[in-house]
Amino acid sequence: MEHLTFTLVTFVLFTVAVAVISGKIVKNSDDQKTAKGYFLAGNGLGGLFIAGSMLLTNLSAENLVGLSGQSYAANMSGMAWEATAVIATIVMAFVFLPLYLRKGYTTLPEFMEERYGVGVRRMVSILFLVGYLIIGIPVCLYAGAIAFNQIFDLNAIFGISTQAGITILIILVGIIGALYAVLGGLKAVAVSDTINGILLIAGSLAVVIFGFIAVGNVKGDGGFAAGVTYVLDNNYEQLNAIGSNVDPVPFGCIFTGMLLANLFYWGTNQVLIQRALGAKNLKEGQKGVLISGFLKMLVPFLLVLPGVIAAALLGNGLESKDFAYPTLVAKSLPWPIVGLFCAALFGSIISTYNSFLNAASTVFMCDIYKPIFNPNLSEEKTVKYAKRVGWLFAAFSICVSPFLQVMATGLYDFGRSFTGFYNIPIITIVLVGMFSKSGSKLGAYVATAWHVFFYSGYKFWFQYIDTPLTNKICGINYMYIYAISFVVMLVIIFICSKIASNDKEFDRGSMKDENYDMTPWKKRKAVAVWLVSFLVYEYFLFSKAGLATANRNVALIGGVTVVFAIETIICAVAAVKSEHKAA
């Protein structure tokens, strides 16, 4: 009980400290009085704040609980969601972001209106809102509640059921998170994200280190090295990231549906791109996005590997695979630092949650309420109404979350698969709108209707094919369905463009604000090349050619590591030269 009290006090004190620091930074700021300030932090975010906020928005309890659960029960193929996202961040930095900033968009649906018309803007706005309120926010809150309930064991302490404990935690997290998002706006979210992000990375690294130590003490001769040796010798198959058709992420998915899903998430999802849209200039925006790509490359080591460690330490006796990470935290971390880690975990949950709320209120006010019902609404009233809407959205999500039932494939796959109802139509329409003149309003409508109908059949009407982990004969991974629907949607859009073409042509080159600095980051090319090299090296490391085999070729692993180190030096030199050349 003394340990629990210390943990709770540490957790509360640090959480309050972050809130106070964030509040002081944004207090009396003019950014909170205008729509641009509230929704986009007054276009004043630097690269580090953008990177920290994007990372913590992306890394929530859903990732900690879900990704570790996948590697605990199967292997590290789930790391593809994190590692391969670096390709999407590069596309975002080089292609999407310059267009968004040049046009001065506050939301992605604004692009939809300029490219396709106001009707498509409304349709995409509704898709975002439905996805955020029914899938995104509830999954975030539910995952956070699972994590805290496992760490603190509230149902045992208070003598209540697990579901009751989860419900109470959902309400508490929901209310506190809403305070950040509704009262502080994007700037408060970005500041708190950066602080919590630093602690989360440190805490996650501590879980890996102390997890190996715990394995060494229980299974080996004691210590970190003994734990690493035990995992390499006994759990090497789980270190394999090259997934088969019955693994969480088949390797082929990386080049099909996952590529589309990551492009949506990092290039078009309002929740994430809103940080980059708030950049003070293109250079800081590109810097922030690419740094976030680097941080994503660390996630397999920090969040996926712990599932393998948990399997080595705990065996297969857990009630649910989604309990692996929080149980590892409770079993391995020294109790004096559990409170700080929980504060960081809480911060990541709050970050994703309030990011969804901020994005939802932004989309509702900027794309639905103001243009339809009150075009002359003042800046101050827009912010005022946005806060009210944020509270309503928070209340709705808190009510929905306790009823969320985790699918058989686990929490992470549940969230990702159901996001498929709206992510593929949006990324398809965006890609066609940016790179082709064939896209038309009719094509956007018909293609979206087709996808919702087709994907509904996959998820609900013919559920037998939606079981790839257990049904080896007919099971088809949902990411392959993404790719199939994407191709069909392209055909539909092309045909519809012949029937009814666009009334006007999209002007990519015009700028909304001539004073906005569109000078690109000089180091972006060197950084992008290095990130791709890191991705290749990481997949080599977690494969049967690397660590995922009983007969490891130490010489080969060492040689590839040396090559990657040389590549790192070359890219660093190229980055320095590009900066000097620009100067």
Structure overview:
The chain is mostly helical and 583 residues long. It is 74% helix and 0% strand. The chain has helices spanning 2-26, 35-40, 47-58, 61-73, 80-83, 85-103, 108-115, 118-152, 154-158, 162-219, 224-234, 257-267, 270-277, 282-314, 324-332, 335-373, 379-400, 411-435, 441-461, 478-499, 524-541, 554-582. The termini are far apart. Mean pLDDT is 80; it is low at 469-473.
Write the layout of secondary structure elements.
Elements: H1 2-26, H2 35-40, H3 47-58, H4 61-73, H5 80-83, H6 85-103, H7 108-115, H8 118-152, H9 154-158, H10 162-219, H11 224-234, H12 257-267, H13 270-277, H14 282-314, H15 324-332, H16 335-373, H17 379-400, H18 411-435, H19 441-461, H20 478-499, H21 524-541, H22 554-582
Helix pairs in contact: 1-10, 1-16, 3-10, 3-13, 3-14, 3-16, 4-8, 4-14, 4-18, 6-12, 6-14, 6-21, 7-8, 8-10, 8-15, 8-16, 8-17, 8-18, 10-11, 10-14, 10-15, 10-16, 10-17, 12-18, 12-20, 13-16, 14-15, 14-21, 16-17, 18-19, 18-20, 19-20, 21-22
Characteristics:
583 residues; mainly alpha; 22 helices; globular
Overall shape: it is globular
Number of strands: 0
Q: Assign a percent range to the helix content.
A: over 70%
Rg (C-alpha, Å)? 23 Å
Seen as an oligomer or otherwise, the chain set is: single chain
Distance between the termini: 60 Å
Biggest sheet, in brief?
none
Number of helices: 22
User: Strand-residue fraction?
Assistant: under 5%
Structural class of the secondary elements? mainly alpha
Mean pLDDT across the residues is 80
Question: Unreliable stretches, pLDDT < 50, 5 or more residues?
Answer: 469-473
Give helix and strand order, one letter per element, not per position. HHHHHHHHHHHHHHHHHHHHHH
